[in-house]
Amino acid sequence: MTNKSELIEYTSFRQFGFNEGVMEGLDTVGFEKPTPIQAQIIPHVLAGHDVIGCAQTGTGKTAAYLLPILHRIIENPVKGINTIIIAPTRELAVQIAQQLEGFSYFLNISSLPVYGGTDGMEWEQQRKALSQGVDIVVATPGKLISFLNMDIVPVQNLQHLILDEADRMLDMGFFDDIMRIISYLPETRSTLLFSATMPPRIRELSKRILKEPVEVNISLSKPAAGILQMAYLAYDKQKTRLLASLIKGRDLPSVLVFASTKSKVKSITRELAAEGLQVADIHSDLEQSDRERVLLSFRNRQLQMLIATDVLSRGIDIENISLVVNYDVPRDAEDYVHRVGRTARAEQTGIAITFINEHEQSEFARIEKLIGYEIRKQMPPESLGDGPEFNPSMNKPKFRGKPGRRPKPKK
Length: 411
Known about the structure:
alpha/beta; 14 helices; Rossmann fold; seven-stranded parallel sheet
């Protein structure tokens, strides 16, 4: 059956009939035309439907649920907490809370971010605010459970539950936590589930917590045409020196590097700092205040390089990144698209480089199969010695178009 929203071409947010306060917030943050996921999801949220939204980072999914929920809160306020938004990491929770603050600037709507890593004074402030009831809570699973267990959170009139980046939450082992949170909530509510990918575990979760959901699928985009994609065949012992050689003496004001483990992130940071580069790391061992300080320095271009763990690959929302480096090949092919999508936003240009060791070649071949073309590979500089030959154990797919860039569609 064709959804009514699919028959309408939404070229303006005013077509949704938003409250004027919501429109003022949109004007302030400079939003003019809805993105495809916003055009498809907003009408269903306004109608109170359960929704499954499959879309990658950068498509505008946060606004797709925040805007109609703000409108519904203004039109039909309730006593206690109206909406709970659950996010997998503190960084994503902070970003959602910041975007929410901008959209609700002209509205009499209260919100509260709840996540770990805070001191005793902040904990007490959160406890007091929750017990009194705020309109919207943005939380990480573990911290929210700790407050729900205290039986002080007024959720009896909850209208909306949003799970953002649900696939990442399941990857991090939060399935039981999510089900426990839901056990505290009223059954009569709207539930919205957003995921960049739709593996069987997400399908199973959606069956258990959603009722007759509308499914909106914005297909995974290929890397933007403005991204120059390259790969180096390098052994692990060569990777950090290779990274330093690619950065030194080049005009790259903003470099984001993803590595697979916290220990590796720390080691890379120490070695690059010893080379005289402006670098810092970000991972779950840091206190929240330190993580926010590092991200702010990177965002303000006071810090050239940021080394991050994989878990933050979707949680860093910073524009105009010059270079993204996959120090290790992403385990999931879809994650490659998310990571390189940190650069070349808004029709800009950027560079994405992946290091491939002798054990990661089949994973990289899967990435090439997903994006539909081959990425140019080369050896490290002669001073570092030869890297491994590219010989993946799986059959390589057939490619079309020039290697290293997204093929142009035929007219």
